[in-house]
Amino acid sequence: MTHSISRNRRTLLRKVLPAIAAAGIGATGLVGCSGGDGTAGHDTNKAEKAGKVAEKGATSRDTSAKSSDKGGGAALKLKTTTGEFGTKAAATADFPTWGTRWVVHQTADTSSPSVGMLNKTAPGQDRITADFQVDTGKKVCEDGACSTYMAHITGPVNGFVSVVAVDIPQDSLPGVPVQNGGGEPPRPPQPGGSRAEALQRAATWLTADNGGRVPYSQAKVWKDGYRQDCSGYVSMALGLQAPGTNTVGLTGSSITKPIAVNDLRPGDLLIDASGNNNTRHVVMFEKWNDAAHTSYTSYEQRGDFGTDHATRRYGLEPGSEYKPYRPLKFTD
What we know:
Blueprint: H1 7-15, E1 82-83, E2 86-87, E3 93-96, E4 102-105, E5 114-118, E6 127-142, E7 145-155, E8 159-162, H2 195-204, H3 230-238, E9 256-258, E10 269-272, E11 281-288, E12 296-302, E13 306-312, E14 323-327
Antiparallel strand pairs: 1-2, 3-6, 4-5, 6-7, 7-8, 9-14, 10-11, 10-14, 11-12, 12-13
Helix pairs in contact: 2-3
């Protein structure tokens, strides 16, 4: 087995060299949408894109690539992101990685599928942006360094990577919050299932934040691995792959099909996928409120509020840009 860095240097990095964790704002490439009563939501134009790389083992490192050493520490930098409600901060931290071809996993489990790689020889892929970490309780070791922590990263690939991939002296990332109480990471929703199961998953975010609703964010991912915006929320409820597709993606023929408004059933979607990032939004239909179909109750993740379960009329007004869709997973 070959290594991209000597055992002595790796030990030195993890035990001696200082780490500089940068407080930043925002996260690259995340998709967001929001909406309030009587208003449409919004969704950024950038869709999630991660390379699909075959997973060959349970470790977080593919050591077949040639070594490529890197010097220097993390540089402090400040990021800003502007959304519908102005410029606001979202805690992130930037760290350098070491070596080559580190596997980025779908969940905080080294046995989960790969969603991409960190490749030091590729421009822009020699650093990570982490927003939270989890203590999996399962130790991963490399060149004498071990850690049970995996970091959720939002760049250059969105997913989870073992902390042993990072040039830090600690066994966890300094300044990065630990989620889920530092215990085992939550299991993501499984694909398939019934309409009732989708609605049950949607309801979990109403009380998931210590008894309160999950807060809305375009730049954060919740403990279950899904983005805290409208399309990430619906992706979670449907059991799609984390961190979720975007609003336009939810209209894709591999996920949904168009239906008539009066055919809406529990778990179906109303999606406004037109316009720009100030207009896109999606809600999950639960039930009609009356026989005349003048309003309905739905689940949604809306801006400046969070998870909501309320009466809506999206898509019922003449000329509305909200269109009804049925997830293909529902075969009835």
